[in-house]
Amino acid sequence: xxxxxxxxxxxxxxxxxxxxxxxxxxxxxxxxxxxxxxxxxxxxxxxxxxxxxxxxxxxxxxxxxxxxxxxxxxxxxxxxxxxxxxxxxxxxxxxxxxxxxxxxxxxxxxxxxxxxxxxxxxxxxxxxxxxxxxxxxxxxxxxxxxxxxxxxxxxxxxxxxxxxxxxxxxxxxxxxxxxxxxxxxxxxxxxxxxxxxxxxxxxxxxxxxxxxxxxxxxxxxxxxxxxxxxxxxxxxxxxxxxxxxxxxxxxxxxxxxxxxxxxxxxxxxxxxxxxxxxxxxxxxxxxxxxxxxxxxxxxxxxxxxxxxxxxxxxxxxxxxxxxxxxxxxxxxxxxxxxxxxxxxxxxxxxxxxxxxxxxxxxxxxxxxxxxxxxxxx
Length: 377
Ligand SMILES: [Mg+2]
Description:
Blueprint: H1 35-54, H2 57-67, H3 70-96, H4 104-109, E1 115-120, H5 140-152, E2 155-158, H6 163-170, E3 176-179, E4 184-187, E5 200-202, H7 209-223, E6 230-233, E7 238-241, H8 250-261, E8 267-272, E9 275-280, H9 286-296, E10 305-311, H10 314-326, E11 330-334, E12 345-347, H11 350-376
Parallel strand pairs: 1-2, 1-10, 2-3, 10-11, 11-12
Antiparallel strand pairs: 3-4, 4-5, 6-7, 7-9, 8-9
The structure holds magnesium ion (MG).
C-alpha cells in the first residue's frame, strides 16, 4: 500500500514574509517573463484583461471596439513587436506541449489494448475560473461529457475543494472523488471497477481537522477588511481567494495570512490561480492521490494501464510529475499561456477539455463497434 499518514513537520510556512514581494511562488502562474515577454504580458494585461476575465465571448466586442477606435488602432500598431514576440513564445511552447486534440489519434493509438483511467481537476478544467468560487458551475454539456467518459473509463475528480463541495458541483455518482488536494478520498462502494462491501474513506490528514477549523476562523477575522477576499474552508485545507482583491493590497493580505500561520508550524502555504492555499505539512498531494486511486482500482503494478490527468494549476503538477516519473500515461495542462509544466500535452480551456472528453468517448465506441463487427464476421 501507499505509505499513509506520513507527517513531515516543517519549521515554518514555506513562504516567508520577507520573501513575499519577490517570491515567484506568489506571482501569477505562469511566472513573470523578462524583457520583451514581460512587456508583452503587461501590454496584454492592460488591453486584453476584460477578455481574459470575461471569457471568449467578449473577445469580439473588445477587438471590434479597438478596431473602430483610432487610439486603440495606434496603440495596437505600437505594441505589435511585443505581441509578435509573445506569439512566437506561445508557438514554441505549443511545439513542446502539443494540443491533445491535435495529437488525438497519435495519443489513442498508443493506448490500444490498455486500460485508460481518467483523472480530472475541477476548477479551470471542468469549470471556468470565475470571480466567486461558489459560482464555479460546470455546464450541463460538460457534465454529460464527464458522465459518458465515466461509462467507459474509471474516472476520478481530484480537486482542492472539499469533497462534498466538488460533488455538489459535479453531481455524478459512480465517480471517485478526491477533495482537499487528495487529502479526502472516497472510493465508492460499488462501481464497474471495484466491488467493496462499503465505501472507503481515506483521510490522511484527519488529525489536522481541529487546527484547520481554528485557522479558518482566524483567517476570516484577519481578512475581513480586504474587499473582495474570500476565505473557504475546504475541510483539510483553507483557501484564501484574492482574485477580487485589488493588486495593491496583495502584499498586505499575504502578510496577514502569514501572521496567522506563524502560530501553526504544521501548516504551510502554497499558491494556486489567484488563491492562497493553507494545508497540512504532510507528504500528500494530488500526485499521491493519483497513486492511491490507481492502487484502489487494482492497477498499482499494472503495465497495461494509461492514467490520463487533466488539470490547470500548480497543484496538478504533482500528478503530472508522478505520471512522468512512472513513464506511464500522461498529463494534459489546461492553459492559454506558456507555463513550465510536467504535463506532456496541452489544452487551451475547459471547452477544449470537453471536446477531448467527447472524442475519447467516440473513439471508445468506435473501437467497441469494430470489435462487435469482427465477432459477427
Ligand atoms: Mg484547477
